[in-house]
Amino acid sequence: MKTANKTVTATRLVQDALDKAHEFEDYNIFTFLDEKGALEKAAEIDAKIAAGEKVGRLAGVPFAIKDNFLAPFGDTTASAHILQGFPSPITATAVAKLEAEGAIPIGRTNLDAFAHGSSTENSYFGPTLNSHDRERVAGGSSGGSAVAVALNIVEFATGTDTGGSIRQPASFNGVYGLKPTYGCISRYGVVAMASSTDCIGFFTKTPDDMDLLMEIASGKDSKDLTTLDDYYNNNKIANVNKIGVIKDFDNDSVDPEIREALKNKCEALKSKGYEIVELEMPALKYALAAYYIIVPAEIASNLSRYDGVRYGFRSENSKGLNELYANTRDEGFMPENKRRIMIGNFVLSSGFYDAYFLKAAKVRTLIIKEYAAAFLKCDFILTPVAPNPAFKLGEKVNDPVAMYLEDMMSVSLNLAGVPGLAIPAGETKNGLPIGLQLVGPRRSDKALIEFSKVLEEA
Ligand code: GLN
Questions:
Q1: Which atom of ligand 1 lies at the shortest distance from residue 193's CA?
Q2: Would residue 412 show up in a list of annotated catalytic residues for this protein?
Q3: How confident is the model at residue 439 (pLDDT cuts 50, 70, 90)?
């Protein structure tokens, strides 16, 4: 990562990033650019450098935050109408830690509203365009962040991954995207989607940048009691010998060029002396169904706070309180948000709880056990991130089930809490990036990043 010094100033780095953001304006990457604030922060860092004072490990590095991180510049909208006009009262822990090392947020990036989606087409502000093909989706929900890094506007960007929202857009745009172990990075100050699967992570161009960001951002936070101890910086790099591949993922629903890319990586690993282990993981075929019960249930609960009284947008001209709630939620949420609220309340309702939510919770336990058993047979698992490369804008937007199927290879990691790193693995004949996903046991994040360098060379 290029940090500021006496010759290349923070002001220069930030101005370059802002210029590029303007150059790519029609990609609809940013929901807000903080030009004035970013340049002021840059000037402060330059003054420190000029005075010979100590600066942080990310001094003057411009970055972008997904617009569901709270920080006091612009409104935190989560790309939803219902949050417009909501100024952040606090700064998310992850953003604060990056800023403490001198990194400079230049703006907020577009997402599927409340991070519900796999294409960034569910945004109130319209879709973000793919970095490699403007007729295709950016992936989602963190589409804006992925494209901002892929187009070299910023060195890195933050994302959230509840079921694939970092890994899938990373793979659609040819960059690295990490969903860390659940609890590795504090969720404090990030708009909640599904609290038991939400993870904070990053998009970068290189594994080394990812490692540095993880060293900085991970660790215990008294404001998020689900955070783990600071294991990341004490992680031993394990000896990696065996790589697992999941038999069931090698089928016709996966794009042939992606299957080919996975096979080629496996061959290359074999020739370097690694052993490839075939894994039977039969519970994974239920992961998507369990995810789309558990996650909407948590969404319905987390979104109940948006009532037109406490946050952002309020529908005027309502008679009485109930109408105010109903109109605000009707006008403020996107159709996909409403679909999930309906599903979530349905599966939690007294008549259906046992049949849906409880059963999904049991499936989740099976999946956790299946990963634990798999990691007795291999060190890491290598899979596709998604069944296909970036698809056409509009192709799946009216077919929610087709959109949910996008997530079939990513959601099980969130249900199990294990880390997954999306790595670039070449391009299709049409020039679309292909991504593969390296999966490890809980707390193996550092080793995963380290091993991705072996894969990069392979
Ligand atoms: N695409 C998945 C969903 O819509 C994942 C979203 C996410 O990770 N935020 O639920």
A1: 9
A2: no
A3: very high
Ligand 1 neighbours (beta carbon < 6 A): 115-118, 141, 160-165, 193, 295, 407
212 burial via Cβ count (<10 Å: 0-12, 13-18, 19+): buried
- Report the separation in Å between the CA atom of 200 and the middle of ligand 1, taken as the mean of its atom positions: 13
Query: Residue 425 in 3-state DSSP?
Result: strand
Helix or strand run (H / E) with residue 174: none
At 230, list the tokens.
């600071």
| Options 118, 131, 141, 412, the catalytic residue | 141
Both structure tokens of 74: 């612009």
Q: Residue 179 pairs with which residues in a beta bridge? A: 420
Structural domains of the chain, ranges and CATH numbers in brackets: 1-458 (3.90.1300.10)
Q: 199 alpha carbon to ligand 1 midpoint, in Å? A: 11
Q: Which of 66, 97, 265, 446 is catalytic?
A: 66
Q: Which residues contact 287 (CB under 8 A, 6 or more apart)?
A: 363, 367, 408, 411, 412, 415
Backbone angles phi, psi at 50, to 5 degrees: -60, -35
Please tell me the distance from the alpha carbon of residue 255 to that of residue 433, in angstroms, as a whole number: 13
Distance 123 CA to ligand 1 centre (A): 13
Instruction: Express each pLDDT in 347-399 by its tens digit.
Output: 999 999 999 999 999 999 999 999 999 999 999 999 999 999 999 999 999 99
**pLDDT > 70: percent of the chain:** 100
Q: Residue 28 and residue 143: Cα distance in Å, rounded?
A: 10
On whether the CB atoms of residues 260 and 398 are closer than 8 A, the answer is no
Amino acid at 62: P
CA-197 nearest atom, ligand 1: 8
The answer to whether the beta carbons of residues 418 and 229 sit under 8 Å apart is: no
31 vs 108: CA distance, rounded Å:
6
pLDDT in tens, 280-294: 999 999 999 999 999
3-state secondary structure of 310: coil
d(CA 397, CA 385): 20
